User: Fold these one by one.
Assistant:
Number 1:
Amino acid sequence: MKDVIIIGGGLAGLSAAWRLKNHDILLLESENRVGGRVMSERRGNYWMNWGGHVYAGKGSATDELLKSVGVKALPVPGKLSAMHLNGKLLLNGRVELYPFRVPMSWKSRLSLLKAGAKVRAAVIKYGKVAKQLEHEDYSVRQQRILDFMNNKTFTDFTGALPVDADAIFRPTVSRSTGEPEQISAGAGIGYFHMIWNKEGGLSQNIMGGPSTLTNTIACRLKEQIKLNAQVSEVIKNNDFVTVRYKIGDTEYTETAKYVILATPAPITQKITKNLSPKLEHALKQVKYGPHVSASFLTNETSEQVWDDVYAFATPKKSFDILIHNSNVVHAMHNKREQGSSFMTFSPANRGKALIDKSEAEILEIYLTDLEEMFPGFRNLVVEAKVNKFPYGSAYVYPGRGQIQATLTEPDGRLFLAGDYLGTFYTETAIQTGFTAAQNINSLLGFNKMEEMQNIL
Ligand SMILES: Cc1cc2nc3c(=O)[nH]c(=O)nc-3n(C[C@H](O)[C@H](O)[C@H](O)COP(=O)(O)OP(=O)(O)OC[C@H]3O[C@@H](n4cnc5c(N)ncnc54)[C@H](O)[C@@H]3O)c2cc1C
């Protein structure tokens, strides 16, 4: 019997495994790689990226993990608030004045100013609610954040907006994978807080690409990880847990004292056969939207308009945001290096519109939009690849706060971990992986002490 079986080799599962590595553990991952929604590949000094790209900084669980694994992260360099709208590229200047610099009706401009002022005031309130208090456990803060304006949608809060005003708000909010009509007002405001406060939120790039972190952990854990291992059944018993999985056509059964389920909520609910009815019900309430993303590698040799910009909001396009991943590499050199690396991503309804299309179709749609932003872009592309994430992210909807206590309570010998247990994406994944590991470390230590005392 194993001490612990961890199901899922995304950041949540790997963080838990990292903390439990001195016990007899086994991590089962259904894909032929670890990382889950963290996915990048090296290309010379650059990397192509399809999943999480910005990570939490100082004082976070992410920072703790990066340091203990020995992986370097640097603050995201460059501008975060560039925008392309109605044929115009805005690279700098005050965001509040953007509506006056792009063609749009006066009705849209006035609505934007009104809604913008309302959101700004709410962002200040959110900042107070989200502040980490001294000696406060992260779960107390998380519940407070989930409960913030959790009784209405973001659209209820702003009111219906004219087309151009709506188009400016939508790409920021829908990065959560929910549309403004679906996500809670508090969650939408939290997104603006994250963007307007570069210091606090997700603000670090992992050098070499995000998979540097997940692959380094996997290399160290070696035979404690099994890839291509599809878990089909988890059954909790009084004294142990049974896990059934398949590698190719071969079926395996393994038992463990404890199990960490680090899979997205619908998978956790599907594979675990005897969850408590309350937890099963709560897992069914978690709502996800899709993400489709693509990575592009270019080979230009001269300076470009995107130099020193990290993120472009792209309202009314097939993607909500364009990320210039290589900006952190360019920032490290005095001379302009050849080439760049980009990521487009399409969450929520933009993702739904693309997810059933072929890779060639998706790339053509993306390249048409990119060509409109940067004429001549298509001819610079040397490599492009798409990835689809049906469970892109779990979004916070009105009422979501009510299931938090149930979701974060262990169920007998089962512990849950994953980004859907909070609002900080990779940071939540790592934090919940650490928490599950801490609980199990404590229980295993207690059991071992009892055994030793019985021998004496
Ligand atoms: C396009 C995109 C951009 C993003 N950008 C950011 C960002 O910039 N910053 C940020 O913080 N977050 C971002 N996120 C979210 C972030 O990637 C996730 O929050 C985080 O990676 C989730 O980690 P996880 O371990 O909870 O889940 P996952 O990464 O989904 O891991 C779950 C693992 O379980 C495995 N699995 C599933 N079923 C089984 C089974 N039956 N048996 C065994 N294994 C199984 C999966 O293959 C997967 O590896 C982004 C996500 C996407 C898709």
Number 2:
Amino acid sequence: MRVWILFVLCLAASARAAPAEEEAFVEELVTEEPVVEEPEVGANPVQIEVGEFDEAIEIVEDDAVENACLNHHCKKGKVCEVDESNTPMCVCQDPTTCPPAEAEFEHVCGTDNKTYDSSCHFFATKCAEGTKKGHKLHLDYVGPCKFIEPCVDSELHEFPLRMRDWLKNVLVTLYERDLDHNLLTEKQKLRVKKIYENEKRLQAGDHSLDLLAHDFKKNYNMYIFPVHWQFGQLDQHPADGYLTHSELSPLRAPLIPMEHCTTRFFEECDADSDNYIALEEWAACFGVKEQDIDKELVI
Ligand SMILES: [Ca+2]
Ligand SMILES: [Ca+2]
């Protein structure tokens, strides 16, 4: 439970400073290491080896090359290079230029069921592969690939019970800690305040599934906003009312090794199997009634 709360806290903090690229977002979440500086193009040995220029000219060249890439952002798996006219462009990173993983937790498992040394290696490989195999490679989960036992129907039914409760507790925790951190926006705070101050709220704890099911019936209204909030946290690249596999990744990738029903749950959430989870599909799979699904709550 605690791990979940910490994890979603990180998720919320990352989302507040969400970068433009969806995969950069995933990368930030799945690695605990600081973002590795990509090699400066100006330090390219090929350029340094050019012997025709005297030292002064070479420095000017280096600066120019460096500047062209300085403000040129490339998504994960790509690095900036300049062409002959010094125009910066993003090209697939060679996976061998990724720093080696220092610990097992840095490994990631791809949807091809292969373990990659780090998310850097994964995204570099994904970039090189593109869609040439007819399907897009995705990051499946954090950690090395392992056997994940099949999720049976009864377990699948338990998953949203726990997750709804977690989401509500996460929001309450964010609210409690929010004094100066701006973890929540003012609009969000107003919503959570009502949950926080409700005396009937089921306090965080290790509750039985029966109690969680009972509380969902009894205090249904308290669960509506947390489900919408989580959708909004994920739907950012772009914020279009649909979750792609990559947008969902910050939530599902760390969860899969802990919760073996994660994959099946989110697969079935996509009721029309179009590979996107719409707000309506998301809310329905968390038990929110159709009449309570409200785009205005995705704030
Ligand atoms: Ca989206
Ligand atoms: Ca869908």
